[in-house]
Design brief:
This protein has 6 helices and 2 strands; from the N terminus they run ααβααβαα. With 99 residues, the chain is mainly alpha-helical. The longest helix has 15 residues.
Amino acid sequence: MNHTVDVNLTEGEKEKIKYLNKIMKGNSNGYKHDSDALHVFQAGKFLGYFITVDKRILKLRSDLNRISGATVVKPSEWMRIYNECNDLHHIMNGHCTRS
């Protein structure tokens, strides 16, 4: 049997997502960056890596890492990391150095 627990965000986490969204949005209008900001936040909180080909996000990778803790990488960079570590379990558990 599967069981799902709804986990609410803390006020600090909500503020961090808002800040990420503001940085990612820049001068643009609309809401298309909202989900990107949430996904970058979640990557930093739970996994560590955010893999993308979105040039807008890649340009901001240093700021996004500083704020969220997520390491933003291109798919090719992720493959290099994976091949160097040779084990996804070790990467996800922090046994491999992030680039």
